[in-house]
Structures are given as C-alpha cells and as structure tokens.
C-alpha cells in the first residue's frame, strides 16, 4: 500500500500538482487585480467621455461597454485570486498530510 505503486504516493503527486496549479491561478488573479477598474477608456490616444462611442482597429465600443468590461475583468481577477489561494492551500495541506502518513506508515 505504501510502495511505489500505492494510493498515497499518487495522491501526493496529485496534491503537489494541484498546489502548483493553484499558485499559477493565484498569480494570474494578482496580475489582473492590479488594473484600475475605473480607468477612463481611450479611443486611440483620446480619453473617452460617458455616452461616447469609438471605432478603432480593435473594433467599435461604447464608453459604458468598455467600463463594464474593465469592472468584469477586475471581478474575475479577484475570484481567481481566491480560487488560486484555496486550491494551492488545499494541495499543500494534502501533500503534507500524505508525507506524514507515508513516514508514519513507514
């Protein structure tokens, strides 16, 4: 059961991978949460005003749509930060628990 093909070593590997994936998601969330959700959008190099629209090389959009998109991106980043931290912590705790069990079982 505790040999190289047992359940615990496999669980330890999965937990370590979960911790690493959680850290990546956490980093993506932290990176996305640094953006200012209330930053005034630009049309080219010109700041937009409420009620205006823009058509540039990336397409057409309104001030309100761009502001809603920025706020949504910020909210998603916050959720990623929480999810990443949770997954990393659970993966690390399971990994440590399995290491203790393997040492205890011997």
From TrEMBL:
Residue stretches spanning the membrane: 12-31, 87-105
Keywords: Membrane, Transmembrane, Transmembrane helix
Domain of life of the organism encoding this protein: Bacteria
Name of the protein in its database record: Uncharacterized protein
Organism listed in the record: Nocardia panacis
High-level lineage: Bacteria, Bacillati, Actinomycetota, Actinomycetes, Mycobacteriales
